[in-house]
Design a protein that fits this description.
three-stranded antiparallel sheet; cyclin-dependent kinase; kinase; alpha+beta; cyclin binding; serine/threonine-protein kinase; 10 strands; ATP-binding; single chain
């Protein structure tokens, strides 16, 4: 098969990660010398299970969406190949995900690095949302970083196109810690605000180097949010008491001052986070609106802590380009 021959172009260098539907390998293109991420998805596993010709729906979704997007802060799908048994997605390679970077680096993220990362992420969100795509699974594990200071959205397996007016989607999509409160309260008609809330949680984690709302169940997740942001009321969030899973018996917590929990570098940084962690989705700023914030306007490419990156990549990059 032609695709088998195409696969011969890549030399596998080791496993880079594992997901629900397959293994991701670090590989080198023998023709160019460049590293790629090779996502291998077994096909026969999914045959006769309602999947299109044995391809899981998340993989189909990822291929369809990524083939239609081009943005410097969204991981690029370079090629799609297949054999009788496997589907291979070839992505550009970035050395680490943000979660691993924060775990490995002994340093706090510098002010300018956080600003740089947030500018790129908000810009990518504005691009996706303008193309009517929700990511729906924003978390540090799905954000890839390199040594130059770039950060890119990855893992579009839970993404989907949306149309206006909004339609009902499953609300159990965003990983718990980054899940917007409207989803936790049973809202079925949601839109771009779910990504913005998740992005706010990611920003807080960059500043704290730990999750802001680390719940272990849906109710615990809600209470973790309420204890910091205050229990939502109709004054703060019009219509909240009408949501399916809202309970009048929820404990009544007062909002805390975020400055008591997070060490901000400047007032504009705190303001950006508050814009994203706004309860009412109708009042939560859009990515396009966030780009107008002064905090992001001064962002510039900033080098991360290079000691957090695998040493072997230094020699890999010395190969032919």
């Amino acid at each position: 098969m032609e695709n088998d021959n195409k696969l011969d172009r890549f030399l596998r260098l080791g496993k880079a990660g594992e997901g629900t539907y397959g293994v991701v390998y670090k590989a080198k293109n023998k023709l160019t010398g460049k590293n790629v991420a090779l996502k291998k998805i077994k096909l026969q596993k999914f045959q006769n299970k309602g999947c299109s010709e044995g391809v899981p729906s998340t993989a189909m979704r990822e291929i369809t969406l990524l083939k239609g997007v081009r943005h410097s802060s969204i991981v690029e799908l370079l090629d799609v190949m297949y054999t009788t048994e496997n589907l291979y997605l070839v992505f550009e390679y970035l050395e680490l995900d943000l979660k691993r970077y924060m775990d490995v680096s002994k340093l706090s993220l510098e002010q300018e690095l956080v600003r740089n990362y947030m500018k790129q992420l908000v810009d990518a969100m504005a691009y996706l949302h303008s193309h009517r795509i929700l990511h729906r699974d924003l978390k540090p594990q799905n954000l890839l970083v390199d040594k130059e200071g770039h950060i890119k959205l990855a893992d579009f397996g839970l993404s989907r196109s949306f149309s206006l007016p909004t339609r009902t989607y499953t609300h159990e999509v965003v990983t718990m810690w980054y899940r917007a409160p409207e989803l936790l309260l049973g809202e079925k008609m949601y839109c771009t605000g779910v990504d913005i809330w998740s992005l706010g949680c990611v920003m807080a984690e960059m500043l704290m180097k730990r999750a802001l709302f680390p719940g272990d169940s849906e109710i615990d997740q809600l209470y973790k949010i309420f204890k910091i942001m205050g229990t939502p009321t109709e004054e703060k969030w019009r219509g909240v008491t009408l949501l399916q899973d809202y309970k009048p018996a929820f404990p009544k917590w007062q909002a805390q001052n975020l400055q008591d929990i997070i060490r901000f570098h400047c007032e504009e940084e705190e303001q950006l986070l508050e814009y994203m962690l706004t309860y009412d989705p109708a009042k939560r700023k859009t990515a396009k609106e966030l780009l107008r914030c002064n905090y992001l306007k001064t962002a510039k490419l900033t080098t991360p802590d290079l000691n957090a990156f695998p040493r072997e990549d230094i020699t890999d990059e010395a190969g032919p380009s």
